[in-house]
Amino acid sequence: MQSFAEKVLAARNAVPLLAERLAGNQITSDDRKAIIEVLAVELCEKGFDAESEPNAYGQELERLIDYLNRPNLK
């Protein structure tokens, strides 16, 4: 999941520091929220088919968002 997140962050020209922190498992709660925000934008733009159902890419993004958001729900 981490490499997928890093690829999306790089493709969206997100702050490089976020990808570095994610790679080193050194992300803060604010970093996590920023990463989720980038992933949510990607999901909205590329993750749905013509019937507004998540496509395979969108499902993968949703799983990643859920995974990253778990610590924020505690």
What keywords describe this structure?
74 residues, mainly alpha, globular
Reconstruct the topology from this structure.
Layout: H1 2-11, H2 16-23, H3 29-46, H4 56-69
What does this structure look like?
This protein is an all-alpha fold and 74 residues long. It has one domain (2-73). It has four helices and no strands. It has helices spanning 2-11, 16-23, 29-46, 56-69. Helix 1 (2-11) runs antiparallel to helix 2 and helix 3 runs antiparallel to helix 4. The chain starts with a helix and ends in a 5-residue tail after the last helix.
**Coarse structural class:** mainly alpha
Distance between the termini: 21 Å
Low-confidence stretches: none
Biggest sheet record: none
Overall morphology: globular
Number of strands: 0
* SSE pattern, N- to C-terminal: HHHH
The radius of gyration is 12 Å
Tally of separate domains: 1
Question: Strand content of the residues, in percent?
Answer: under 5%
Give the fraction of residues assigned to helices. Answer: 55-70%
Total helix count? 4
Compute the average pLDDT: 86
In short:
This protein is mainly alpha-helical and 74 residues long. It has helices at 2-11, 16-23, 29-46, 56-69.
